[in-house]
Amino acid sequence: MSTALSVNLNKIALLRNSREGNYPNVVTFAQQSIDAGVQGITVHPRPDQRHIRPSDVKQLTELLKQHPGVEFNIEGNPFAGPQGNYPGFMALIDSARPHQATLVPDSDEQLTSDHGFDVFHHGERLLPIIEQLKQWNIRISLFMDPDIQQIKQAKSLSIDRIELYTGPYAKHFGSDQQEQSLASYREAALYAQQIGLEVNAGHDLNLENLGDFLSISNIAEVSIGHALTVDALHIGYKNAVYSYSKICKVA
């Protein structure tokens, strides 16, 4: 099976939020991603609204109604409640009804997601949230480390997928620990699939390390945003400078 690519738009929103106004427009970049053939759009709205805002979720929900073949994946801490005009994670999910909700144990203090759920500690608290998502017919993915015992416990929560946190793999890529790290992810993914869980992956995957990671069979989806945005700058920056220089030369 081929792996679906879901483009994370957080960094587009972060750039927009550095100034007043709506430039760059998150919806415009979602449409460009769709035009380029992606299978999904991902956002991770946080209570501090450092990048994706509730208004972005609403606008993207409307956009994706026009593209039924493209999935909407909303990531976030399922325990995050209302804060300012952030309505809370579950309220956002209720309003958007995305194809997939990826539950991530990040806190307001974290710069970015950096670990998976400890299901032994949080599993009971997750149960009513999972039940509600099931009632809304939303696929449930749990952000996980490549830990066999944690994945085994996660299966008991009746989720649909796990998303393997690939930060450590990316960190070790190109080092003498690369093969050992990749082997741990391969073992975790295979185990998850054997017990009936589909497997997504995300965090710090890029053009250099993605191909090797996808040597792991049957990864359902990868979510990529930060590296994709940086790569877009590398690929297109010189052409943008040329275009501005051309205008200045003829002025």
UniProtKB/TrEMBL annotation:
Catalytic activities: 3-amino-2-oxopropyl phosphate + 1-deoxy-D-xylulose 5-phosphate = pyridoxine 5'-phosphate + phosphate + 2 H2O + H(+)
Any Gene Ontology CC annotation: cytosol
GO BP, one annotated term: pyridoxine biosynthetic process
EC class: transferase
Transferase keyword on record: yes
Annotated site (Transition state stabilizer): E163
Pfam families, per database record: PdxJ
Subcellular location: Cytoplasm
Binding site for 3-amino-2-oxopropyl phosphate: N8, R19, D204, G225, H226
Record: residues binding 1-deoxy-D-xylulose 5-phosphate: R46, H51, T112
MF GO annotations: pyridoxine 5'-phosphate synthase activity
Principal location class: cytoplasm
Residue numbers annotated as active site: H44 (proton acceptor), E75 (proton acceptor), H203 (proton donor)
Keyword annotations from UniProtKB, A to Z: Cytoplasm, Pyridoxine biosynthesis, Transferase
Coiled coil: none
Subunit structure: Homooctamer; tetramer of dimers.
HAMAP family: PdxJ
Function: Catalyzes the complicated ring closure reaction between the two acyclic compounds 1-deoxy-D-xylulose-5-phosphate (DXP) and 3-amino-2-oxopropyl phosphate (1-amino-acetone-3-phosphate or AAP) to form pyridoxine 5'-phosphate (PNP) and inorganic phosphate.
Protein name: Pyridoxine 5'-phosphate synthase
UniProt source species: Candidatus Endobugula sertula (Bugula neritina bacterial symbiont)
Gene from which the chain derives: pdxJ
